[in-house]
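Researcher: Good morning. I'm working through a list of sequences from a screen, and I'd like to move beyond sequence-only analysis. For each chain I'm collecting a predicted structure so we can compare shapes side by side. This is the next one on the list. No need for commentary yet; just the structure.
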Amino acid sequence: MAAFAARTGDARLAPILRRLTRPITVRVTGRPGTGRATVAAALGGAGWTVLNPPGPDTGDVTVLVVAETVKPEDPASRAALVVLNKMDLLGAAAPGQVGEIRRRTGRPTVPLNALLATAVLDDSLVGALQVRALDQPGRGSTVDAALADRLLATLDRFGIVALTHALRAGADPSALPGLIRELSGLDEVLTALTAAAAPVRYGRIETALTELRALAVYSGDVALWDLLACDAVVLAVMSAATDVLRADGLPVGGADAVRWSRYGRGPVNALHRRCAHALTRGALRLAERA
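Model: Good morning. Structure tokens for this chain:
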């Protein structure tokens, strides 16, 4: 659609495109003490548009932050994603707790150490870690007290121990930021958040195409009808529908028009029915091209 607008100079598409491509906003909620502000900072630092402060009914996607467990007062029913923060405090029990929260809430749940997800190491902190790595076990650290406090505030004990151990095992200091990110679990959270936002993206595409059809009807512009029927649009809708179904755990697999036509006629919700229609149409279009 953007390419069509640029090629034709059709200004009528500009507001439709603005609504279609505006950033997806994230509302981060959670009880005090769960680290919701740090989680919000981690998501914002990763490129998501996080609302601050989060209003009661704002945001395209709501993320609920919990610590240790979910409680009755947690509004899990309104969350697209649950983040179990401070996962390092649970140790080996973290995977089981994630599964329990997922079972109790019915929502996708992922663990996170938000403090590590927002941690930034400067040269002095890296140097302090290297000094700690050289210290003999059982002896006091030779790191300056003020620097040790800053190190603790940045990484907490879990992060300090993990990075010190890595350095002692021969890790290069330049690898520490990547190790911090791995320990934080941030990438898993971002993947889950992208999946949770799939229905929002699909809904925006549906709205944009509805607006485009209305414009085509009222203007009688044949070029707009051609745009709506072109392969690029059909396959883009198919791709967005695939993301929705995969986010809900369906094995989408290849382009099978018969399968998705049958699925769409089954006992599924309205969103899945529309997605099945998009996959059916896309599969037929791919078959024609083949």
